[in-house]
Design a protein that fits this description.
CATH class of the largest domain in chain A: Alpha Beta
Number of helices of chain B: 12
CATH topology of the largest domain in chain B: TIM Barrel
Distance between the termini of chain A: 13 Å
Bound molecules: zinc ion
Distance between the termini of chain B: 6 Å
CATH architecture of the largest domain in chain B: Alpha-Beta Barrel
Shape of chain A: globular
Oligomer: heterodimer
Strand content of chain A: 5-15%
Largest sheet of chain A: 5 strands, parallel
Strand order of the largest sheet of chain A: 7-6-5-8-9
CATH superfamily of the largest domain in chain B: Metal-dependent hydrolases
Number of domains of chain B: 2
CATH topology of the largest domain in chain A: Rossmann fold
Shape of chain B: globular
Number of domains of chain A: 2
CATH architecture of the largest domain in chain A: 3-Layer(aba) Sandwich
Radius of gyration of chain B: 21 Å
């Protein structure tokens, strides 16, 4: 494994190794001295073309806990914002001797392009509406910790599937790991070829919840309403929002997940968000462990 | 440029793939044809043993980029590329900067073509001012200009307003012109990056649905038939479009259509690596669409092959997919791709290739001196093509100023050995002369 560009690139063994490694590293995070010397002398660049303090901070923390040198190369206030091309930025990072580049970009496929221009490992931290593989890994890690297994687990992914990199990465990874995924959304927010994806599809949340161990609620952006994907936020929330009443229809040990940032009252009601069955803060904590594992496995060798 | 008074004896060429004959070229015309022609004194012999002779190719859809984007291509470099591809005439699309929407700009392009001298350059006039889709450009002035424009197109943009399209179709009838439509419903393709389907869904790239092309083609065919005008459909790319055009022709609509070499060969799964060399408008479609396009070209539903040669500088392609420019160069690979997809597959004879790439495009563009028979008295516009000379496509080695060929690294089956424009070799022994 040289890069992590797509969840689909991971075999079941590789994905499991990442999750197992993350579990070991999570134990380190519980110690008072949290640092490991594993990546000492290695340089990790966080190249963020989109604002995402949470993801960037998570990667930064993960790299620092492994003693790597971290450079934050954000698009704002750098040559990037003055119109420097991705290729020229890549050549700059190459000259700086970056061993790993963590890239967040609004263009689908930008990490693929970058991987042709740098010698170091490229880690996709979210590209456009394509993928977000470490999010899927931390989601899988969270499910495995909570439910004790992934094989046969029934996961409903609810919301704007078409525009969601989280959904794409989760479908690929969870399927690889033996879980059963059902995508739930109005038809307007499902890709036209979704029937060819390795998962089930439903337009009706109430049909799916009783048969789901996990409800993964995706963020719905306001602009989708203005683009006529659905008539109003209220109507969306009525049909696809998760409130306490709907949560009660799920199996008793079922959990609610959200990649954040969460819009309370739209995808998830405040009551559900604050319930112990909602894993949002756990997901954040697990994100650091999973990203440590990925950095360790990509950069730790030799 | 070589001497125009020179006499050439092309020996042993196979006209339209038939039996070998000699062609005597003098005074810009084919002076004689036959076997064992005597070599006149002072004539240069061109050994064409094993080569196919076709009438010089005519491209109805070329982007020469001048004026405005001379960093990508100029009329001179683009017409050299055309000659290298076996073309003796090209139609230069109007989406230059400034747009070719006045007599002044089309005459400039026409003059640049004459000065370059590698092929005849016929400017295409814009349908609407600035390609803005709001007001008709000065179509009559362009038609009456020295450039004698007969083909009008907002290519790159669709004339999406139905009423404006109707008026344009009607207006050009006065001088036997034709509207060449870039069929793309704009609302259905906002932000579109590639063919909408399995691959776009997987890659997370906004899709360009087939229906956005087909809906406009259907509408335009109905409009053209209603007002009794000629319609030409640019770069047909989907099975549905072929079906609609077949239906429209059957009910008597005066519609013609083109397909590009890249749509005859390449499919949307090439986008998997996000390399923008495969980014083009209309996008690469599916294998099923490719099959339908080949069938349509074979049965005459699609009348011609047009290159949509679209050069771009390196930096416009060495970038993220979504910011990269759309388009591919194609003049120098067109004939070889047609051989691979249509001739070697048994779908077209060489005589039919001559029709689809020379005679029919000349007829649609109302170009009289091209696309004619290889017979005594005709203008000596001839291409000599070696169908058994495999070559790896290489953008850097091409005559075009740009190098964005999607066939990069692919081995194509043949190559152009010589091109004659009115008796003057623009290409000889595979090299520009
Ligand atoms: Zn076009």
């Amino acid at each position: 494994m040289r890069h992590l560009l797509s969840s689909g690139d991971l075999t079941r063994d590789e994905a499991t190794l990442i999750l197992d490694t993350a579990a070991e590293l999570a134990r380190v995070s519980d110690r008072s001295v949290k640092k490991l010397p594993t990546l000492r002398g290695r340089t990790v660049v966080n190249l963020f073309y989109e604002d995402s303090t949470r993801t960037r901070t998570s990667f930064e923390l993960a790299a620092k806990r492994l003693s790597a040198d971290v450079i934050n190369f954000s698009a704002k206030g750098s040559s990037v914002s003055k119109g420097e091309s991705l290729k020229d930025t890549a050549l700059t990072l190459q000259a700086m001797g970056a061993d790993g580049v963590v890239i967040r970009h609004s263009a689908s496929g930008a990490p693929h392009r970058l991987s042709h221009w740098v010698d170091g490992s490229v880690l996709n931290a979210g590209d456009g509406t394509h993928e977000h593989p470490t999010q899927a890994l931390l989601d899988a890690f969270t499910m495995r910790s909570r439910m004790g297994r992934l094989e046969g687990l029934r996961v409903a992914v609810v919301g704007d599937i078409t525009h969601s990199r989280v959904a794409r990465s989760n479908v690929l990874l969870l399927t690889t790991l033996g879980a059963h995924v059902t995508l739930v959304a109005p038809p307007t927010l499902l890709p036209v070829s979704v029937h060819t994806w390795p998962c089930e599809v439903s337009y009706h949340l109430d049909d799916v919840l009783p048969k789901s161990d996990v409800a993964m609620m995706l963020r719905v952006q306001n602009e989708r309403m203005h683009e006529s994907y659905f008539p109003s936020v209220r109507e969306y929330s009525r049909n696809y929002g998760l409130d306490a009443e709907r949560l009660a229809c799920m199996p008793p040990d079922a959990v609610v997940m959200h990649p954040g940032p969460m819009v309370r009252g739209v995808e998830v009601s405040a009551e559900v968000a604050d319930s112990p069955r909602c894993t949002v803060t756990e997901q954040v904590a697990n994100g650091v462990s999973v990203r440590m594992a990925v950095l360790y496995l990509l950069l730790g060798g030799s | 440029m070589p001497d125009t008074d020179r006499v050439y004896l092309i020996s042993g060429a196979r006209p339209l793939g038939g039996d070998p004959v000699d062609l005597l070229v003098a005074d810009g015309r084919i002076a004689d044809t036959g076997t064992g022609l005597a070599v006149p004194e002072g004539a240069e012999t061109v050994d064409a043993d094993g080569l196919i002779a076709l009438p010089g190719l005519v491209d109805l859809h070329t982007h020469l980029r001048e004026p405005g984007r001379e960093d990508a291509e100029t009329v001179a470099t683009g017409s050299r590329a055309a000659a290298m591809g076996g073309y003796t005439a090209v139609h230069a699309m109007a989406n230059t900067d400034p747009v070719a929407d006045t007599a002044g700009v089309v005459e400039q392009v026409w003059r640049l073509g004459r000065e370059a001298g590698y092929c005849d350059v016929y400017p295409v006039g814009a349908v609407t001012t600035g390609l803005a889709g709001a007001n008709l450009a000065e179509i009559g002035a362009m038609a009456d200009s020295a450039a004698g424009v007969r083909v009008f197109s907002d290519d790159g943009k669709c004339v999406s307003d139905a009423l404006l399209m109707r008026r344009a179709l009607e207006y050009v009838r006065a001088f036997d012109g034709v509207i060449a439509q870039h069929a793309q419903e704009p609302r259905l393709t906002e932000g579109a990056q590639m063919n909408e389907g399995c691959v776009s869904d997987r890659l997370g790239l906004p899709g360009w649905p087939a229906v956005a092309e087909e809906a406009i083609i259907a509408r335009d065919c109905l409009l053209a038939q209603h007002v009794g005008s000629r319609l030409h459909v640019c770069h047909v790319s989907t099975r549905g479009s072929v079906d609609i055009i077949r239906w429209a022709k059957a009910r008597g609509c005066d519609v013609t259509a083109e397909v590009t070499p890249h749509h005859l060969l390449l499919t949307d799964d090439l986008v998997e690596g996000y390399d923008p060399v495969y980014k083009v408008n209309p996008p690469l479609r599916t294998a099923d669409d490719v099959r339908a396009l080949r069938e349509g070209l074979a049965d005459g539903t699609i009348d011609i092959v047009a290159t949509d040669h679209a050069p771009h500088p390196v930096e416009a392609k060495e970038t993220e997919w979504s910011t990269a420019a759309m388009g591919m160069v194609g003049l120098e690979t067109a004939l070889a791709v047609v051989q691979e997809t249509m001739v070697d597959t048994g779908l077209l004879t060489w005589a039919q290739v001559a029709d689809r790439m020379s005679a029919a495009p000349a007829r649609i563009g109302r170009v009289t001196g091209h696309g004619r028979a290889l017979a005594p008295g005709e203008p000596a516009n001839v291409v000599l093509y070696d169908p058994a000379a495999p070559v790896e496509a290489d953008g850097a080695a091409m005559a075009t100023k740009s190098s964005n060929t999607p066939f990069r690294g692919m081995t194509l089956p043949g190559r152009v050995r010589a091109t004659f424009l009115r008796g003057v070799p623009t290409v000889l022994e595979g090299k520009i002369s």
